[in-house]
Amino acid sequence: MPTDTWWRDAVIYQIYPRSFADSDGDGMGDLPGITARLPQLRRLGVDAVWLSPFYPSPQHDAGYDVADYRGVDQRFGSLGDADKLITTAHDLGLKVIVDLVPNHTSSEHEWFRAALAAGPGSPERERYIFRDGEEPPNSWQSVFGGSAWERLPDGQWYLHLFDVSQPDLNWDHPEVRAEFLDVLRFWLDRGVDGFRVDVAHGLIKDAALTDWTAPSVILGGLDSVGPPPPMWDQEGVHDIYRQWRTVLDGYPGGRILVAEAWVQPEERLARYVRPDEMHQAFNFPYLEAPWTPADLREVIDTSLAATGAVGATTTWVLSNHDVVRHASRLGFPAGTGRRPGIGIGDPQPDTGLGLRRARAATLLMLALPGSAYLYQGEELGLPEHTTLPDEARQDPAWERSGHAERGRDGCRVPIPWEADAPSYGFGPTDASWLPQPAVWAEYALDRQVDVPGSTYELYRSALATRREHELGSGELAWLAGDVEALAFRNGDVTVVTNFGAEPVSLPHGARILLSSEPLDADGRVPTDVTVWATV
């Protein structure tokens, strides 16, 4: 694959900086910790890393409340540490994607502080969405619960589709657009290879602020019927990304934009990845698809058709920092709806079933043509921390929902590297910003490296085989077979996933390349198992 289109078949590994590796023992992951662990990601076999926000921030929403887009929060290190991370990654052959949060700033951003000081009617307030009135300007609800409007002592309201500490920017203002063009150049000049754009579908709001009585959901709120809500997926966002694409195209090496856009149907999502806009968009319909052959086949077909129509690559993802880890999510009966976190007293997943299905789901995903995203720790088979004490929760969704939603902390717990080390090798001390469960020891990397059949070695073998057989740049062709299975060919590899209770047969003469679990004694594929083979 040419260097400038590396992303079309890449496997990209998401790093959540707080929870990846802590170099100084304060319980918070940091950039030097990430840099020290990059060789292990190279050994795993990924092509790039994507870092969740590390900018200066009061951390009301784990860094997605950005106070300065051109710096590094002292909790994570310095700009020098960021430069060293980028250089080290490039020396290892890894690309680096950073998060960009353009929908809102922190309430501690210098622009918002200036807006508060300047008062109603000031030019400073025009950079955000302020309105007058005795009542909230409309019925919009925050994604984290409660009203999306906060009233100031001077009587004006400001919009915050997320936490009250995250005021939404006014993207109809030329200063806002110019500022982010400069932010893009700042990080591109430092060598980053792209940006994952947070809430990419939310920047432009309906000019009339039309009332919307449904909750302002962003996760699990996919709806393919009717017009988009007035705060999401408005037509004007596409002009912004055309401008951004022009900036990125001026840099060498294939710099990319990746949309976090919870948009349905897939044909509408594909509009974000037209040739003059973004390069990729996360495939959330695939992430949310039930564990059934019919549902998965439908979303695979629809996704490939939608992106193919605009000449884009399709992405595949099973876990990230906003959803229950798929090793736990798949431990519930197929078709169970999205859970806003899992905690003590909630229905608990079947851990063994969840891991078995997760391994099968991963092999299925990595065999599909396009680009794949992995979330840190999934290569260890990490489940959700489903018994995290409520008093330890830090996700603003927990408080703002009146404790109705557990929130996303369970998938953000620091990951284990060494079974017998303090904080399981996350850092040099026992400190950990979220408590790690005792079972983390059995998932630690040092318990899995070079262990045949371990989840880590399954991932490593899958990534190597995927590259060898060029599955990311291949083409999918469905095969006839058992109705309780999915079977397809990609290049010279045949892939079979069995969802049914009875084992299914492989094509005659199949030579096994990989299997998520051992086959039956007669060579058939057991339930919840994926096999790669050549015929």
From TrEMBL:
Any GO MF annotation of the entry: hydrolase activity
Domain of life: Bacteria
SMART domains to which the protein is assigned, alphabetical: Aamy (SM00642)
Keywords: Hydrolase
Glycosyl hydrolase family 13 catalytic domain location: 14-412
InterPro entries: GH (IPR017853), GH13_cat_dom (IPR006047), O16G_dom_2 (IPR045857)
Protein family according to the UniProt entry: Belongs to the glycosyl hydrolase 13 family.
Protein name: Alpha-amylase family glycosyl hydrolase
Organism, scientific name: Actinoplanes sandaracinus
